[in-house]
Amino acid sequence: DPAQDVSDARHAPSFADLAERYLVEHAELKKRPKSVALDKSLLRLHVMPALGAMKVEAITRHEVSRLHHKMKNTPVVGNRALSLISKIMNLAEKWGLRPDGTNPCRHVEKYPERRMERFLTDDELARLGSTLLTAERAQTESPSVIAAIRLLILTGARVGEVLHLRWAEVDFERSFLRLDDSKTGAKVIHLGEAAVVVL
Q1: Using an 8 Å Cβ cutoff, are 75 and 113 in contact?
Q2: Distances from the Cα of 119 to the Cαs of 122, 128, 152, 192, in angstroms?
Q3: How far apart are CA 109 and CA 79, in angstroms?
Q4: pLDDT value at position 7?
Q5: Where would a tag sit more exposed on the chain, N or C end, judged by fewer CB atoms within 10 A?
Q6: What whole-number distance in Å separates Cα of residue 64 and Cα of residue 80?
């Protein structure tokens, strides 16, 4: 029935519809708030302008490759956008909006990423320590901010782990932090004497 085909095509979900469903039925239920915020930002800034108006079933590898190629100057962001589109398209298959095995992100190669690893030199650490001491004496910064920076230096913990640290996770008796919900799951961070003093 050609008329039915036209009607079905008109009412078929767009990528924007699918992305909204992804956020409501998947991301907001299963991901951390920070990850959901990143997904929303990627969708708004990069994915929606390219794919938002297209019907889910009409998106091909060509459109995904073209979007990914446009992001070649920001390879990490391009790779995150590709992963997000892939996840959304996998859910489209699961929800019966595309045939199985038709994810258009397949065979779109991610950009190589260099792992950034940077350590402060002895001179940089000394200058940072001096700056923190000056701010502490002049009371130009919150004591909590200064303590957080010192704790980051002394433990090697992630920023979010220190900023969201709860007293229940601090074991003074055995000198360690037991983090229930770090980025990599539950973990223990051993504390040196200086870190205990900061806490």
Answers
A1: yes
A2: 9, 13, 12, 19
A3: 9
A4: 46
A5: N
A6: 13
pLDDT band at 184 (very low <50, low <70, confident <90, very high): low
d(CA 46, CA 64): 11
- pLDDT, one tens digit per residue, over 6-18 is 444 556 899 999 9
pTM for this predicted structure = 0.64
